[in-house]
From TrEMBL:
InterPro entries: AB_hydrolase_fold, Lipase_EstA/Esterase_EstB. GO terms for molecular function: hydrolase activity. This is Alpha/beta fold hydrolase. Residues 1-28 form the signal peptide. PANTHER family: FASTING INDUCED LIPASE, LIPASE. Keywords: Hydrolase, Signal.
Amino acid sequence: MLPWKRVLRPLAALLLTAAVAVVPAATAQAESAPSHGWNDYSCKPSAAHPRPVVLVHGTFGNSVDNWLALAPYLEVRGYCVFSLDYGQLPGVPLFNGLGPIDKSAGQLQVFVDKVLAATGAAKADLVGHSQGGMMPRYYLKFLGGAAKVNALVGIAPDNHGTTLSGLTNLLPYFPGAEDLLKATTPGLADQIAGSDFLTKLNAGGDTVAGVHYTVIATKYDEVATPYRSQFLSGPDVDNVLLQDLCGLDLSEHVAIGLFDRIAFHEVANALDPAHAKATTCASAFS
């Protein structure tokens, strides 16, 4: 029998291949995103929507494909919308969010500063899917982001890590597997429940003062599991279960971020709570 290290060495490549089944084929990077309202650095926030919205993609995602539905949804509602690529690995094109998450948070820090400088806004709002809803919390907590961010909206964020429906519990039975994962795709290793990264991130509380937090989860999530581990604790947190808004919504981890307009409606409510409208099944058509 081959040693486990030899068996597990192609793990990262297999994970990247599997991602093709759930992430649309990438067509461009941030520079080629639509230029009217989405990554349009001449966009100036309106009085109605005074803060630019920065979209933060998930693991295996990128600045375009993750937001082909949500970016236009927000843009037509009058928001200045921007998206970034982060967590790139050398030699791995198109699929991002795989690098060390603390380094990815540093990339977000630089991008938010760029957006604020271009728009003239004092603060931004962040909307992220999966890792993109969790990683910004490192920026807020350790990199000064709380002074530059009004709200963080996480769509299916793995705030307390994931068990991948229990699969990560098997890692101790395969000697060297976790070390291999850390070496090849550290962004994945950081998201395992109980990782050193998540222990640091959540020590002393889930939130920081001055930022409004919203978590939008689905009970059918098969990636960020168990789904209730996505929820945050804190004084300015709104935890939302999609099926409490529409029991007919069957979206799982990918769909909730890529094209679920019921979830998008709740994102819009979180960005503009003063004008929030009840989210129902009918919101899919609004």
